[in-house]
Amino acid sequence: MTTTPAVRAYARTLAPERLPAYLYDLGALREHAAAVRAALPERVELYYAAKANPETEILTALAPYVDGYEVASGGELAHVARAVPGRPLAFGGPGKTPEEIRAALASGVGRFHVESAHELAVLADLAARARVRARVLLRFNLAVPGELLDGSALAMGGRPAPFGIDPADADAVVRTLTEGSSPWLELFGIHAHLASGLDARRQLAVAASVTRWAAALTARHGVPLREVNVGGGMAVDYARPGERFDWAAYGRGLAALADEHPDTVLRIEPGRALTVYCGWYATDVLDVKRSRGEDFAVVRGGTHHLRTPATKGHDQPCAVLPADDWPHPWPRPATGGPGPVTLVGQLCTPKDLLARAVPLTAPLRAGDRVLFALAGAYAWNISHHDFLMHPRPGFHFLPGDPASAPADARATAVPATALSRRPAADRANI
Ligand SMILES: Cc1ncc(COP(=O)(O)O)c(C=O)c1O
């Protein structure tokens, strides 16, 4: 399924001047997040990696299902703290500046994911000066067995990388926390986000390997292992948009791992696999042409709004909504037959490719709508919006039925607050 009924119906109501637009189905998001939460054992904490999609409405809709949020910059920290006040935050990411660390200490961030020995020294000094206790998870770039990261779409560890601390330095770094020289820092545990795009089997094997390594490290130093954060990176299959990460198998595996480590809280922090399915980039066809034997359709907008297919090199899954109305006096261009057609945007670059050789069941015409699916994560927020100065898309949040949030939700949803980062001209909570 690449669309939901709510999204199809709403997309038909938007006049062409209001396209392109991001449509978010918050009902679908809540349903998905509830299913993910239900598949995980009670003892496993679920944080949402806000970098995947930090829209206020998204953060708010997720609030009943997550235990906290992972933020990776001072900007994300300030924004998420405003959007979902009072919720636990973990501050990760490389290259934290002293100013960001000071702000994090002042705002009472729950966990610091420390990326290097230098960052630990800066945090120790600033925490002491502020007289604020900081709970630390040391992030390590761990080696994991054999082929585990081979299927990864984006490996960030298990090989030379700027992320996390080298395991060879682990004992020295742990000693700086246990020998008494950093009294304002508390070693709470270990963090490792090694790759994105792993299936449940690989994720579980990585989680087990990280947790066992962390348990051995803390045991060597005679300190408790209170927490292990095994990161995010649950696979999303853009080629088969109906497929989902096997949360049930992952939850069962994490339950067994948690049983092996009864005194340790396990935590995960997915981004993409939580929000990707709730967003669509809706647009319409502006022009259709044939070039050297192939059909192309130029749609309003492009990869400056939806960079995901350009950055990942895939074809963004999409659905066509035929529009029978053609109000113009000039002829309506259309493909000669039912397909395939390559969908491109309005940018003057051959890289502005949204989907190649899309099979069609009917000719595609100017004015037809196209809904690009799996646009709820790493889409608008990673795009180069200002290239060529085309207008920005609208943002529409379809509410679903907020009352349908299950009774076992972990926290009360907080009301949506306005996000003033962009002109609110075409921003609607429907
Ligand atoms: C430290 C960390 N945690 C979590 C995530 C979320 O990864 P994903 O969106 O693939 O689940 C990322 C992504 O880069 C990350 O760097």
TrEMBL record:
<dbReference type="InterPro" id="IPR029066">
    <property type="entry name" value="PLP-binding_barrel"/>
</dbReference>
<dbReference type="GO" id="GO:0009089">
    <property type="term" value="P:lysine biosynthetic process via diaminopimelate"/>
</dbReference>
<dbReference type="GO" id="GO:0008836">
    <property type="term" value="F:diaminopimelate decarboxylase activity"/>
</dbReference>
<dbReference type="InterPro" id="IPR000183">
    <property type="entry name" value="Orn/DAP/Arg_de-COase"/>
</dbReference>
<dbReference type="InterPro" id="IPR009006">
    <property type="entry name" value="Ala_racemase/Decarboxylase_C"/>
</dbReference>
<keyword id="KW-0663">Pyridoxal phosphate</keyword>
<feature type="active site" description="Proton donor">
    <location>
        <position position="348"/>
    </location>
</feature>
<dbReference type="InterPro" id="IPR022644">
    <property type="entry name" value="De-COase2_N"/>
</dbReference>
<dbReference type="Pfam" id="PF02784">
    <property type="entry name" value="Orn_Arg_deC_N"/>
</dbReference>
<feature type="domain" description="Orn/DAP/Arg decarboxylase 2 N-terminal">
    <location>
        <begin position="27"/>
        <end position="275"/>
    </location>
</feature>
<feature type="modified residue" description="N6-(pyridoxal phosphate)lysine">
    <location>
        <position position="51"/>
    </location>
</feature>
<keyword id="KW-0456">Lyase</keyword>
<protein>
    <submittedName>
        <fullName>Putative diaminopimelate decarboxylase</fullName>
        <ecNumber>4.1.1.20</ecNumber>
    </submittedName>
</protein>
